[in-house]
Model the fold of this input.
Amino acid sequence: MKILVTGGAGFIGFHTAKALLDRGDEVVVVDNFNEYYDVSLKRARANLLSCEIIEADVSDYDDMKKVFEDYSFDKICHLAAQAGVRYSLEKPFVYEKSNVKGTLVLLELCRKFKVKDFVFASSSSVYGDNKKQPFSEEDRVDTPISLYAATKKSNEEMAYVYHHLFGLNCTGLRFFTAYGPYGRSDMALFIFTKAILEGKEIKVFNNGNMARDFTYISDTISGILSALDSAFKYEIFNIARGEKVKLLDFIKEIEKNLGMKAKKKFLPLQPGDVPESLADISKAREMIGYNPKVSIKEGVKKFVDWYKEFYSI
Done:
């Protein structure tokens, strides 16, 4: 297949593009290499991809129209987005442009150029502070508690409209805390590892009473590839490990792999953040054969080993 991967220099986008290339698909990557976090990490990822890489912003209709004119895509894998719950409190219009307008541009170009299949990134954040766990795709998600979450819910709704009106096959993937080598430098595992190695304090929010459904990147990618290999009319899937891990246990795993103790600063829960996440992955298991395999113990070790090698520690 020839597949457009947006956000292909990002964490999940890079691993997706690489997995597609490794199995023989043709890939075109679009990324704007924005400065939300270390651009050199994005460049390092891109340098490992043996495919066409176009530096463009998905929210620029004219630039993206040219990409669609120059290539004939079988499927779109839309992973470009302004990430981060906390940053959305500071820069709301960046999220509206990248996440809402960017997705609308791609949906409209799929309609115009008759690209039938559209797989896109949603997020576990759409569940807001739902009290029922594990989170199921059948749950109502009408109460997002961050602008980031609201933009991701908007993506799901826009995709449904384009499915309903124009017959696009749309599959949304609600990712749960993906982590692993080449991970984003604004995420907890990266921040904690760096700080512990430098002897600096780490910030532990909600006084440590946090838990996440951490998903190792290879498991996340297996879900994406399975979705790309399918052609559902309109479906949403949780892509997660299906296991809740306490934040303090996660930190202990990092400490164990570094052979160092963290200096912890306990703080209240941040606005827009949720204390816990846990996914019901039974739908993904049944419909796309999703089967996550990597435990926290294995995954954290793989990340720490990569971090030490990448930064020559």
Summary: The chain is about 40% helix and 20% strand. Residues 178 and 215 are 5 Å apart (CA to CA). The domain at 2-180+213-243+279-292 is CATH 3.40.50.720 (Rossmann fold). The mean pLDDT is 96.
